[in-house]
Amino acid sequence: MYRAIVIAHIACGVIALATYWLAGLSKKGSPLHRGAGKAYLLSMIGVVASSVVMAGFAFAREMVVIATFLAYLVVITVTAMALGWLALRRKRDQAAYRGLGYRAAALLNVVSGLAVFAFGIQQGNALLMGFSWVGIIIGGQMLWRAWKPLAEAKWWLREHIGAMLGCGVATHIAFLGIGIRRLTDAMGVQVDLGLVAWFAPLAVSFLAGLWLERKYLAKPAAAAVRRTEAASA
Known about the structure:
Elements: H1 2-25, H2 31-60, H3 64-89, H4 94-97, H5 100-123, H6 126-147, H7 155-186, H8 196-216, H9 220-232
Helix pairs in contact: 1-2, 1-7, 2-3, 3-5, 3-6, 3-7, 5-6, 6-7, 7-8
């Protein structure tokens, strides 16, 4: 049973990685982008569901570090998935988007992140200590925006982009930190990316965020100036 769950988890993870990049590289708002995005969310539901079961098995076998990592990954990933989806569903009502569920999720991320950080110190685990800041930062930003909502027409697009980048960070860190090691161990090869598994997805996400913000969230005046300069060039 456990082996079947692991296989399902890997299969869903591979589909999630493929559709994530397909959605990210396709034209925003296009049928391909929307279709790939839906496929990504569906595959991630499979990843999350199997992760919950795998975390339960790990706790039962007293593999506390792995169980904690998986459980925490579920929290931050589900948060990002929900925010990315809800931002599109509630684009006309920011108050509803940042309701009670939003604030509860923000607190859960902060508390979970702090707990994982403390556990990482106790275990001397650098991945747990570093990864804990994802939830702390996400939750802190959510609390700030619940208190001071975004004052821009495309607030929902900013939220959607940020949430999906957050999904990418969580899933890629998990893949680089655990997935690759398990795959290479099965092949008889020892590969440990160390902190690269943590910093590389963050760096790529940061650069992608800057590019997407410039392309899709630039102020109208600035965008008009760039179009004028391009036309006169």
